[in-house]
Hints:
Structural class: alpha+beta
Mean pLDDT: 93
Oligomer: single chain
Strand order of the largest sheet: 1-2-5
Amino acid sequence: xxxxxxxxxxxxxxxxxxxxxxxxxxxxxxxxxxxxxxxxxxxxxxxxxxxxxxxxxxxxxxxxxxxxxxx
Length: 71
């Protein structure tokens, strides 16, 4: 069980490192991880009702492979 955990941890570290470089990771039959740049936007804070700005940022996205989507 510890060997499996080490392998999974190494896979996630490799995915993280590639995404930090701005790359994308495709795992055949599973899906694709990529980084998307979001623009700065204005939103309304529901608690206070005031308009606030969300800064531009990069976020990770995952798109499942067709085989995974059709389960």
